[in-house]
Design a protein that fits this description.
With about 400 residues, the protein is an alpha+beta fold. It is built from 8 helices and 13 strands. The chain has 2 domains: about 10-240; about 260-390, Alpha-Beta Complex (endopeptidase fold (from Nostoc punctiforme)). It is about 50% helix and about 15% strand. The protein is elongated and about 100 Å long. The N and C termini lie far apart (about 90 Å).
Length: about 400
């Protein structure tokens, strides 16, 4: 039976051992060489994502102008249906733009984690070499050899800790990136009905086609960007790029945010999972209150959510939650700033001579019927005179 191989003891020359320091430091230098610098090239993934988001913002602005032009040239139930669908496209555009910027931020963060790991590994290699140099003549003694080998093991363990730390950080960023990759809830390719006259919304249709194209490239660029960063780090890290976390599109999201068209605002996640941006905290609070009243039975003169509400009672009590007093009657709530259909935002009111409803975004509004429910934005209401859209918080 053959004997197992055993490493021979170091050769001695008199009282000195022949110690190969390069061999001891090689695992660390190999780790550093394969780790990656985390330096993103100019015009790389993050810049491309931001450029795409900016292009989608331009489509969003073009869609807004098209909706306004359409509302001036076309009225009636068909126009209301087209406007509601076009506003859903606007929500998708805003969502895609925000996702692009969020993806770019994640790419930058991941690159920063890799750069930090590279710096730490470099310091570990230098620390080992400095310790080896400081041993001086002791390197030629058995005691010096023991110290140096122990130091090499200790520094390698430190290096592994850095790798594990960066790996965990990149796993977190990968999960966040995965949460950003699902397409918006609105189907971009089918948002405009075939009944909509092309002469009224030709520009909007062109914008939708561009939006479909940029949306596809945006999602693909985000995934490729994170994948590329992961592969630029150590092999153990890149092997885990498939890590992902399940998303919950219906989770409540109520944080301050910003968008090119609305400025600084407050983001809200609607019951259908779409994310919209209210112009301010008061409008967001009113929308949340109105959504909380969905299902309340209709009651003439009612002002109590969960018990009974009429149309103006719903909007009045919802804005009271936000600290804003509205008149009691529907036709008296045409106050604040008039808003064109293309500029509608959550919290705006649609006012008729005998009815009022609250816009919640994504082409929808909430209103008191029997019961309080969500419906598509419209300007027609059983022959009533439509006063217009108004922003009470303006």
């Amino acid at each position: 039976m053959p004997r197992p191989w055993v490493r021979p003891p170091p050769k001695w020359q008199g009282e000195k051992a022949v110690i190969d320091i390069d061999l001891l430091v090689k695992p660390l230098t190999d780790l550093l060489a394969s780790f990656g610098a985390g330096v993103l090239p100019s015009g790389g993934a993050a810049d491309s994502l931001r450029a795409t988001a900016e292009a989608v913002d331009q489509v969003h602005a073009m869609g807004r102008d098209s909706i306004n032009a359409m509302s001036n040239a076309w009225q009636g139930e068909g126009a209301d249906a087209a406007t509601s669908k076009a506003l859903r496209v606007q929500t998708s555009a805003a969502t895609i733009s925000d996702r692009g910027n969020d993806m770019a931020t994640l790419v930058d963060k991941a690159a920063g984690e890799i750069a930090s790991g590279n710096k730490d590994l470099t310091a570990i290699v230098e620390s080992f070499l400095q310790q080896a140099t400081s041993l001086g003549p002791a390197l030629g003694t058995p005691e010096g050899l023991a110290v140096l080998v122990g130091s090499a093991i200790d520094h390698l363990q430190q290096g592994v800790k850095v790798v594990n730390r960066v790996q965990g950080e990149l796993d977190t960023h990968t999960s966040a990136m995965s949460a950003l990759t699902p397409p918006p809830t609105t189907s971009l390719a089918s948002t405009l009905a075939s009944s909509v006259p092309t002469q009224a919304i030709g520009t909007a249709a062109s914008g939708v086609q561009q939006l479909v194209s940029t949306a596809s490239s945006l999602v693909g660029s985000g995934v490729s960007a994170m994948s590329g960063l992961m592969q630029s780090s150590t092999a153990p890290v890149s092997s885990r790029t498939s890590s992902s976390a399940p998303t919950n599109p219906g989770a409540a999201t109520e944080n301050a945010g910003a968008h090119a068209d609305t400025g600084t605002g407050v983001k809200i996640t609607l019951p259908d999972g779409s994310e919209v941006t209210a112009p301010n905290e008061k409008a967001a609070t009113a929308v949340r209150a109105a959504l909380g009243a969905v299902g309340t039975p209709y009651a003439w003169g009612g002002t109590t959510p969960g018990v009974g509400l009429d149309c103006s009672g719903l909007t009045k009590c919802s804005y009271e939650e936000a600290g804003l007093e509205l008149p009691r009657l529907a036709n008296q709530q045409a106050l604040g700033s008039p808003v064109s259909p293309g500029d509608l935002a959550p919290g705006d009111l649609a006012v008729w001579d005998g009815h009022v409803a609250m816009v919640i975004g994504n082409g929808k509004m909430v209103e008191a019927g029997d019961p309080v429910s969500i419906s598509s934005i419209r300007t027609e209401n059983i022959g009533m005179d439509f006063y217009g859209f108004y922003r009470p918080t303006a």
